[in-house]
Hints:
Elements: E1 20-23, E2 27-30, E3 45-51, E4 60-61, E5 65-68, E6 73-83, E7 88-98, E8 103-105, E9 110-113, E10 117-125, E11 135-139, E12 147-155, E13 161-169, E14 176-184, E15 187-198, E16 203-206, E17 211-214, E18 219-222, E19 224-226, E20 232-237, E21 240-241, E22 248-249, E23 255-258, E24 267-275, E25 278-281, E26 285-290, H1 319-332, H2 356-369
Amino acid sequence: xxxxxxxxxxxxxxxxxxxxxxxxxxxxxxxxxxxxxxxxxxxxxxxxxxxxxxxxxxxxxxxxxxxxxxxxxxxxxxxxxxxxxxxxxxxxxxxxxxxxxxxxxxxxxxxxxxxxxxxxxxxxxxxxxxxxxxxxxxxxxxxxxxxxxxxxxxxxxxxxxxxxxxxxxxxxxxxxxxxxxxxxxxxxxxxxxxxxxxxxxxxxxxxxxxxxxxxxxxxxxxxxxxxxxxxxxxxxxxxxxxxxxxxxxxxxxxxxxxxxxxxxxxxxxxxxxxxxxxxxxxxxxxxxxxxxxxxxxxxxxxxxxxxxxxxxxxxxxxxxxxxxxxxxxxxxxxxxxxxxxxxxxxxxxxxxxxxxxxxxxxxxxxxxxx
Length: 370
């Protein structure tokens, strides 16, 4: 009996059938039309659809059809009827699958740098119940395995692929291949040489830059080396290694600093990064250290001095100008040395006081700097 409320139309009566237990890789038949009906007078069925895995996606369109499952597990299979009025009804049954064979398919090799974490996906059959604990990487030769599996396994609805996992290679992992193995109560499968643990040779993510400075300034050069650790760094000047000293710091780091630069610091600078894979050099850059600007001569062309009070400036510096300079200099500077001899008196011996011979020695040095 059909009881209608107002003008509403009756939906179909959908009966999916009985729940089933079936062996994997054999046909599972679905026969819903034995008891399903279109209840609305004048309406007809316009679509039959099956969601075989319970993932909300209707995979096959038809009524009495078959499906082959490849992974053990319990599946919620839903049958949906849509009639010509657009009315729908669904019904579900459970399908228990047993006897599946676990496999890993595909041939792609997973590249895993030492010290890195790499997400991966694998495909096969009978993977519906796989967890991270069921997946391992097996060392294929002598050495330290150092590879672990982390994450939460997310099998797809039919158990043919797994996502959500990552491989982690420790810094002490031995380079080389690993087998990928899956093992649980459903079965065991091994993909041979599926993981390749690799050393990553050094490279530079940033390079030093050329610089031009004036003597006395601070030179700073930076270069960022990357690669499988540990990575040792060494700065070079003209291809010769630098070492830390009173002026140089960071010779074995990513940042080189030289304080109180000298003109002799001019040269080509580079960084060398080394790990177990080998050595890679950064770009060599030119560093130029220019001498400071000349010091203006402080000697003045004086009008007179103690030796010649009648002297008048003539536009050039003579002995009277030197004497005037020295008188002022000695007043507040003790840098004049008591020299042993000079051009005027080669037999002079220091007597503890500054005399003309000492002035001459100072002036010759001063003039050379002017």
